[in-house]
Specification:
The protein is an alpha/beta fold. 29% of the residues lie in helices and 16% in strands. The protein has 9 helices and 12 strands. The chain has a 7-stranded parallel beta sheet. Strand 6, helix 5 and strand 7 form a beta-alpha-beta unit. Helix 3 packs across helix 5. The longest helix is centred in the first third of the chain and has 17 residues. 38% of the residues are buried. Bound molecules: NADPH dihydro-nicotinamide-adenine-dinucleotide phosphate and (2R)-2-hydroxyhexanoic acid.
């Protein structure tokens, strides 16, 4: 069946002004409308949404406006025969710039200077403390859209970039690719370890006590992917016992990060509120992706980014 309606679920407001998003579909030749919970759908309807809802399983196609679709029950979509697509492929610049920003700040101490600026302090760090990212080793774990974006930019800054992925396909700027089974070899020599892989049963708790022990004690962890990839209790412990030097974190086991989390208080931890992908063009980037798939759907072509 052809689609005769695209619905935008109001949960997109978590990240996009819904009206701007709906307007970005002006060129489509099917109507596009904002909906709340409890609507009924049929196979001629497509839905673009941030959260999953049971009623979407009656639609013709569902698009998740996030790259991480770990909150969606892919087996239920497969059982219902409803294609589910995600938004990977568009976060290479946004999220990578945040990862690079953390690394540059942690090396050049911008976060420390800003903390001191807030107190009106003209701060002089110890001579040994500042360094450059140039010539430092970065290990990127997960070399997809975001991982490749980080690797290319880090390479341009003169970093020595290695990475981890399941396939051995080479990646521009990455000098060596390790199999996930060799994670410890991959991270042992790295000054920065950046996580850019999906949250799956296989990747949950990937970085815990053992990994912090393997990492250099002057190493920094960067997590722009998903909180549960890291055992947060082990991370806090590693920071407290100086098993690693610090971290740049956009994502957490519990979001918003609870007020009583010890992570708030480390000088060498930079926290951003899961805004790594935030850009004032997000509605256009997602609308381009969804529009392309509407066209594909209408002519019976394979959908881009199909994950179920
Ligand atoms: P992609 O699917 O493009 O890339 C994920 C990569 O991870 C793949 O290339 C895959 O390579 C690799 N991978 C998968 N499993 C493993 C494993 N067990 N060990 C090592 N590598 C693995 O996704 P994106 O780059 O677009 O996004 C990655 C994740 O980042 C998302 O799933 C999402 O959770 C998160 N994200 C966070 C954002 C934020 O706002 N902070 C924004 C967007 C995404 P291979 O198949 O070769 O293993
Ligand atoms: C804001 C969420 C993702 O998985 O978590 C991120 O895409 C981004 C759109």
């Amino acid at each position: 069946a052809r689609l005769d309606h695209l619905y935008v679920h109001e949960s997109v407001e978590n990240v996009i002004p819904p009206e701007a998003f709906v307007e970005a579909f002006d060129h489509l030749d099917i109507p596009v409308d904002l909906v709340g919970d409890g609507e009924s759908y049929d196979e001629t309807d497509a839905v673009a949404t941030y959260v999953p809802k049971p009623e979407f399983l009656d639609a013709g196609w569902v698009h998740c406006i996030r790259a991480g679709y770990d909150e969606f029950d892919t087996e239920a979509y497969e059982a219902a025969g409803v294609p589910l697509t995600n938004s990977t492929g568009i976060h290479d610049t946004t999220v990578s710039e945040v990862a690079i920003g953390y690394m540059v700040s942690l090396a050049r101490l911008l976060h420390v200077y800003r903390d001191n600026q807030n107190e009106g302090n003209w701060y002089t760090p110890d001579y040994e403390r500042p360094f450059t990212v140039e010539n430092e080793r970065l290990c990127v774990v997960g070399l997809g859209t975001i991982g490749q974006g980080i690797a290319e930019r880090a390479d341009a800054l003169g970093m020595d970039v290695v990475g981890v992925r399941r396939s051995d396909e080479s990646v521009p700027g990455v000098s060596e690719i390790f199999d996930p089974a060799d994670l410890h070899d991959a991270i042992a020599d790295a000054r920065f370890v950046a996580l850019a892989l999906p949250h799956t049963p296989e990747t949950e708790g990937l970085i815990g006590d053992d990994e912090f022990d393997v990492m250099r004690d002057d190493a920094y962890l960067v997590n722009v992917a998903r909180g549960p990839l890291v055992d947060e209790r082990a991370l806090v412990d590693a920071l407290e016992r100086d098993a690693i030097a610090g971290a740049g974190l956009d994502v957490f086991e519990t979001e918003p990060l609870p007020d009583d989390s010890p992570l708030w208080d480390f000088e060498e931890v930079i926290i951003s509120p899961h805004k790594g992908s935030a850009t004032n063009r997000y509605h256009l980037d997602i609308a381009d992706l969804v529009s392309e798939n509407v066209e594909r759907y209408q002519i019976g072509e394979t959908l881009r980014n199909r994950v179920a």
